[in-house]
Amino acid sequence: MPDFPFPEGYVLPVDKPLGWTSSDVVRKMRVLLRRLGHRKIKVGHAGTLDPLATGVLIVCIGRATKRVDELQAEEKEYRTTVRLGATTPSYDLEHPVDQTYPYGHVTEKSILAALQEMEGEQLQEPPVYSAKMIEGRRAYEYAREGEEVRMRRALVNIYEIAPERIDLPDVTLRVRCSKGTYIRSIARDLGEKLSCGGHLTALRRTRSGAFSEQDLYTIEEVERMLSSAPPTQSAPSVSPVSPVK
Question: Catalytic site residues?
Answer without folding.
Answer: 50
